């Protein structure tokens, strides 16, 4: 994923203001934003060009916030049950969503570090980086700007609120902001509960009777987060993947909410079948089968080489298995069948 230049203190306020301007423009128009829409100075345009992790240039004059692309792409993954998506598919959907035929495909490929296909596992760190940097700057928007945005939102919702309630909140913005905070918290909780529920429902049927902890070991995640998830499963007596549904009624620590959803979404693919295919690729030759059989008895590479009078390429089949999927081997009911017998 491409990154922008380091942020300087005198730039943060400008970046925050630009984000707020673009958010307001999109809220009103529901399409891309043009440089003309924002009436920018040269310095502000330079800041936009220098920070593609925040500002995505669709063309020389049209742009969107990179976070919008991330949000829309995540929705596409949800609709497609977290299956890998072609970059062309994402590209065309984004063009439709932002109402622009001009949409820089190369910038999109660089953002996702993917030329043809993007899988959810690759998407996660990109999503997290973009959202972290966006949130870091958006929270710096002045209270006055937030108050103005709230008033604009009320105007758009005037028909739903009714005249009396609309006028009351315009005159009592403190009450409006307090109510907004309460409702925002409730909405976030409901959105998270829905995401977790959908993720649990999407767990591949072949994994439902598999143990959760070996699966978690195969999932790429920071150790401290893995340990917390392990403890969560232990505390709630979750042993098999089918028991993850218990988490829908359990309070979950904020720091592991997103990692938990990402892990459960990762279970949408049949990981057992993935490791089986990997074994099949490695075990195409009798030589590799013989090496792995010998190593399975506890023999070192040196002993294996001497017994075969062959030391060239002995590490190759082991290197091919050095991936998180090796943690799934204990789950496989293969026994000797893994070696084709």
Q: What's the number of structural domains?
A: 3
**Biggest beta sheet summary:** 3 strands, antiparallel
Instruction: Output the structural class.
Output: mainly alpha
The coarse silhouette is globular
Quote the beta fraction.
Answer: under 5%
Number of E strands: 5
Q: How many whole angstroms does the radius of gyration measure? A: 26 Å
**Average pLDDT level:** 79
What distance separates the N and C termini? 44 Å
- Specify the helix fraction band: 55-70%
The residue ranges in which pLDDT falls below 50 over 5 or more consecutive positions are 2-9, 319-326, 334-341
Number of helices: 18
Largest beta sheet: strand ordering: 1-3-2
Query: Secondary-structure element sequence?
Result: HEHHEEHEHHEHHHHHHHHHHHH
Summary of the model, kept short:
This protein is mainly α.
Folded structure, characterized:
With 341 residues, the chain is mainly alpha-helical. Helices cover 61% and strands 4% of the residues. It contains 18 helices and five strands. A three-stranded antiparallel beta sheet has the order 1-3-2. Strands 4-5 form a two-stranded antiparallel ribbon. A hairpin with a 4-residue loop joins strand 2 (55-57) and strand 3 (62-65). It is globular. The two termini are 44 Å apart.
